[in-house]
Design goal:
Elements lengths: L5 E9 L6 H13 L5 E7 L6 H11 L3 E5 L11 H11 L2 E6 L11 H11 L3 E5 L8 H18 L11 E4 H6 L11 H7 L4 E5 L18 H17 L28
Parallel strand pairs: 1-2, 1-4, 2-3, 5-7
Antiparallel strand pairs: 4-6, 5-6
Helix pairs in contact: 5-8
Length: about 270
């Protein structure tokens, strides 16, 4: 795991987003460049079949803060999915704070400073963006999102209103412990963080219409897998155990304050 040498790492998975990547990086850099934080922008290309790799390479020459990654291909050269892309980005991230967002420009980079301010002001571990009042989505996606929220509330008692929003900021300790090696777990980042003992709050964010490319979500690749994933997260939450421990002796060279009692010898 890399040393935490920066204030902020922004991680954005991308698949076939060549038309959106230049504006994404330009907007992010413009927002962050005028702040006080040291930062990096990690775009994880997940098996794109368009010009995304070439576009990212060209952008990296213009923007020193950009660190593009190419995610290893899955079975039969398939894309690995957002969970794996986030996990790969987190593994390379050097920031004390990790921000996540989509690469399709529907998340507004201008919302990031406000989310970071809330993280510092409240002391919580994760601030989740909430698009509920500003959602620019079609009927099918709104319907499947609504069904997913209902399932999470019933099965997981998840109080987070908009877990499907990729725009969030978290402390690096949260990102380090999320089980994102399992497909679909990116949809459950807030509830998983709470199961791990971290604190979570929500704040409203902007949601913009897609300006280029097309979405990769439909009814069948979200609704049914999402229900199965809810059951998996419920099982993990019930079976998960706390593994944090504190040393009994902080300095191995110091003797114990009380010596153990001598063993009794039999007559």
């Amino acid at each position: 795991m890399p040393a935490r040498t920066l204030d902020l790492s922004v991680v954005a998975p991308a698949r076939n987003e060549a038309g959106n990547l230049p504006a994404l990086v330009e907007e992010l850099d413009a927002v962050l460049r005028h702040g006080d934080l040291t930062y990096e922008i990690i775009v994880v290309d997940d098996g794109s079949t368009d010009d995304s790799p070439r576009v990212l390479a060209a952008l990296a020459r213009r923007f020193p803060a950009l660190r593009p990654l190419r995610l290893a291909a899955g079975l039969a050269g398939s894309a690995q999915g957002q969970s794996a892309a986030f996990a790969a980005g987190f593994a390379f991230a050097r920031g004390h704070i990790i921000a996540t967002m989509d690469a399709d420009l529907q998340n507004d980079p201008a919302d990031l400073p406000g989310l970071i301010d809330v993280l510092h002001a409240t002391g919580v571990d994760l601030v989740q963006g909430n698009r509920t009042r500003a959602r620019a989505e079609g009927l099918i996606r709104r319907a499947t999102s609504g069904v997913g929220r209902l399932a999470r509330r019933l099965l997981l008692r998840d109080s987070v209103e908009d877990t499907g929003c990729s725009l969030r900021v978290m402390r690096a300790a949260v990102a380090d412990r999320l089980p994102l090696e399992f497909a679909g777990m990116h949809r459950f980042i807030p509830i998983t963080a709470e199961q791990l003992g971290f604190t979570v709050c929500e704040r409203p964010v902007t949601h913009r219409p897609r300006s280029s490319g097309r979405g990769h979500y439909g009814v069948w690749n979200r609704a049914w897998p999402g229900l199965l994933d809810c059951l998996a997260v419920r099982w993990m939450g019930r079976r998960r155990r706390v593994t944090d421990a504190t040393p009994i002796v902080t300095d191995a060279s110091k003797p114990l304050d009380r010596q153990p009692a001598p063993l009794e010898r039999s007559a």
